[in-house]
UniProtKB/TrEMBL annotation, chains A, B:
Natural source organism: Paenibacillus xerothermodurans
Name of this chain's protein: LacI family transcriptional regulator
Annotated HTH lacI-type domain residues: 3-57
Ranges in a coiled coil: none
Highest taxon of source: Bacteria
UniProt keyword annotations, A-Z: DNA-binding, Transcription, Transcription regulation
Pfam family of the protein (one): LacI
Signal peptide residue numbers: none
Length: 344, 344
DNA sequence: TTGAAAGCGTTACCAA
DNA sequence: TTGGTAACGCTTTCAA
């Protein structure tokens, strides 16, 4: 069994209160007593129980981090950034993959509450506005990152998805594309919707349009679905000369679709991704994509959350950071009068 | 404040013992009382505190998962597989990135103990054999995955790294390569060492050799260092015609090095990775790599650990699964009498 | 400067 | 069947 403060107290011939004080650097304990207690703690390999401390009102030093899928490099990178941000403060992360499913989200949310995490960082979309109510009403410090829920009064740090989509569209427009399609995540993912809105807005401003049948929504298997949806797009009568994908995984799928159909990228088809994950840099050809300032975003949520933990009062700020287009080699000017690549 | 069993008991006009029993489905409670209690729990939105329960000897339903870096797709994929494996059982994962640093490992190990996790899964190398002693001696169920520590009596599930390295070497040999080099992780990473041993063994068996100066060890920035080390290799007098990289990230770096030096892959240089992460499939050209059976591995550790949790006694089995070479397009026969590609 | 004792939210044992 | 109550390991008054 693990040693407790009782063991330490007995061994050191003092009361448990003394041990507790030494542990927390509080109260006044004489030098010698303090040293003696430290000695015994080391000797017994005493590890104070965070559990027991938490029960008395102290923190658990554990944060919940909810993402759609930790194996998606974008979220893995976010997780790492958040981890690095809080590790020095003694916090650990409980990472939960929701698959964008409300039931999984709910399950994890109650689990995290029952496990008394100090705060929750949510990087996954939320459909049901009421989902967070239980958390918030109990005063759980909560913040959203990279995703947001409208009409929810909760601290939020996001990239400007609309602007990101618009930047992608402008890039494509500048290259001369006029026939642009979109592959998005399931239509419930708001950030995807915002990105599409950005694209559409920009196209309309340029006198073009983005008809609904040129927007395809994928399921959960991002790469595979991205490929499948891109195929649909590329095999129709009036195939687009450029596809904007709402994340890098989908873009990778589109890349594969093009390869399978012997459509050259970027000569015959331009593809733009989103997130600027490592995949974008590694893909063939390297993917033009929209980068979110993930490091700043992570740093910011953690700061906001820590404030909230300290002041006990919700901060509820909404911070929007600007994304940036990273041009690589998956985009170029369309070939002259290129109306499509039917591959019967 | 959150509702407690006291609140529920008072509201339902029963004792806390009754509430506790209902909560755990134990003891004998009359139907009506039980239903009434359930009603009150729902009404109060009562969430039992795992913390408090843990203090009385029950489990925390939390597992620690230690990996070198959660943003490395290989480990992110492992994390996801483990998560899926345990989620149904009510467990959450505390994920910790060690960067292969012993001090970070140690820090996290004591943190996890203090937070009373039920078990620890270690997917990161351990240099100091004594590092796990405190854990093990306190009876913490522990298992290693994808990494191992020799002379440590602890449950282990690994891929046969030696065989993996050998498979890579045989593949290269079969293609006709005779001048093969290696880029490895820092020399402290045992699995890397085993893979190299496999390569060397196979080369020697074929009448060739793997001189030490053809084995380069990277630092922590895997891709960048992989690139840098590959450059060193490629720019020397007798550049190799093939490079085996101890993981996909390093291989990606090697790919970049080749690109920078205008060396064509696979025509002028073959590259083999390890892990078969998503990066390998996405790279340009797609990477020939050695796949570990990660899903089976994860499933197995979890089963072993759950046994250990149930029977209270360490299982300490060592399970070795066979890896498999996945041939893609980063390897081919060397060009005839190709002795090197000086790029002075 | 030190110690005794009252919680914190559960569980589990023992009476009733 | 039920309820009272002593743990569990720690923090935090409050006295001494």
């Amino acid at each position: 069994m693990r040693a407790t403060i009782y063991d330490v107290a007995r061994e050191a011939g003092v009361s448990i209160a003394a041990v507790s004080q030494v542990l927390n650097g509080k109260g006044k304990i004489s030098e010698e007593r303090r040293n003696e207690i430290f000695r015994v703690m080391a000797k017994l390999n005493f590890q104070p129980s965070v559990i027991a401390a938490a029960l008395t009102g102290k923190k658990t030093y554990t944060l919940g981090l909810l993402v759609p899928d930790i194996s998606n490099p974008f979220f893995a990178e976010i997780a790492r950034a958040v981890e690095d941000q809080v590790h020095g403060l003694g916090y650990s992360l409980m990472i939960c993959s929701t698959d964008n499913k409300d039931d999984r989200l709910e399950r994890y949310l109650t689990l995290l509450q029952q496990k008394s995490v100090d705060a929750v960082i949510i990087g996954t979309g939320i459909q049901d506005t009421q989902m967070l109510a239980p958390l918030l009403s109990k005063g759980m410090p909560t913040a959203m990152i990279a995703r947001e829920t409208p009409n929810m009064d909760v601290t939020t740090v996001v990239a400007n998805d609309f602007a990101g989509g618009a930047a992608a569209a402008r890039h494509l427009l500048a290259l001369g594309h006029t026939h642009i399609a979109v592959v998005a995540e399931r239509s419930r993912v708001r950030s995807s919707l915002e990105r599409i809105r950005g694209v559409r807005h920009t196209l309309v401003e340029a006198g073009l349009s983005l008809p609904d049948d040129l927007v395809k929504y994928s399921g959960d298997a991002l790469i595979k679905d991205g490929k499948y949806k891109a195929m649909e797009l590329l095999q129709c009568e009036e195939a687009p000369t450029a596809i904007f994908c709402c994340n890098d995984l989908l873009a990778i799928g589109a890349l594969q679709a093009a390869k399978d159909l012997s459509i050259r990228v970027p000569e015959d088809l331009s593809i733009v991704g989103f997130d600027n994950t490592i995949l974008a840099a590694v893909a063939d050809p390297p993917l033009t994509t929209v980068a979110q300032p993930t490091d700043v975003m992570c740093k910011t949520v953690v700061e906001l959350l820590m404030q909230q933990l300290k002041h006990q009062s919700p901060v509820n700020r909404r911070i929007v950071l600007e994304p940036e287009l990273v041009a690589r080699q998956s985009t170029s000017a369309p070939r002259a009068s290129n109306t499509g690549h039917q591959t019967t």
